[in-house]
Amino acid sequence: MSSALVLLSGGQDSTTCLAWALERFAHVETIGFDYGQRHRVELDFRTKIRTRIAALKPEWAARLGEDHTINLASLGAISACALTTDTTIEMGENGLINTFVPGRNIIFLTFAAALAYRRGLRRIVGGMCETDYSGYPDCRDDAIKALQVALNLGMDRRFVLETPLMWLDKAQTWVLAERLGGGALVELIRTETLTCYQGDTGTMHDWGRGCGQCPACALRAKGYEGFRRSPAS
Ligand code: ZN
């Protein structure tokens, strides 16, 4: 068994990734980024998620290591998109939703690799997905694989960038969570994670918290509905 660093934002996908890593690797640390996102409140969910997930299985508690938070305010300052400024979320002329933060995952994974280098962690786990997603180019498998090569060449390491959700739709991501941690993990993710772009924590739906209007809420609601309708659940 190996060690891993999980990108934990406080949302559904990264929490599922944390459970996936805890099931597989002997030592798992987490990293979160504060880049001035308007749904910054998601970061406050991280501590509770870590505590609650460790309580699900004794072996997960034993494997869960340190948490790291990195300030990337300069990324928010230069990107000026609907995720970091008070702009209406809408589709851009280029067919890309204006919540796209250019280079975000490249920067996140590069900072994660720099930390993993220092901490001696080999695997870096992220919730990037190109199956049921917002079309962000840096979520695609080819972008991640190219970055893995660049990081390994540039740092002279053998990092493995793991993206367990890459080929799953949102309903299948719920199925994966249920397989990893049963109904207790599904319930933890439903009630204790925040995916909403508006950072709306006050409104509770059957699929979890959120405004119910933004694209992230729409994806999450559709995925949960698909999960509940699937024969496995
Ligand atoms: Zn929302």
Task: Please tell me about this protein's structure.
- The structure is a single chain.
- The chain has helices at residues 12-24, 42-54, 58-63, 73-79, 104-119, 141-155, 170-192, 215-229; strands spanning 3-7, 27-34, 64-71, 123-125, 160-162, 204-205, 208-209.
- The protein has a five-stranded parallel sheet, with helices on both faces.
- By secondary structure, it is of the alpha/beta class.
- The two termini are 30 Å apart.
- It is globular, with a radius of gyration of 17 Å.
- The site of zinc ion has 10 residues, from helix 8.
Topology of helices and strands:
Elements: E1 3-7, H1 12-24, E2 27-34, H2 42-54, H3 58-63, E3 64-71, H4 73-79, H5 104-119, E4 123-125, H6 141-155, E5 160-162, H7 170-192, E6 204-205, E7 208-209, H8 215-229
Parallel strand pairs: 1-2, 1-4, 2-3, 4-5
Antiparallel strand pairs: 6-7
The structure holds zinc ion.
Zinc ion binds next to α8.
Would you summarize the structure shown here?
This protein has 233 residues and is α/β, with parallel strands linked by helices.
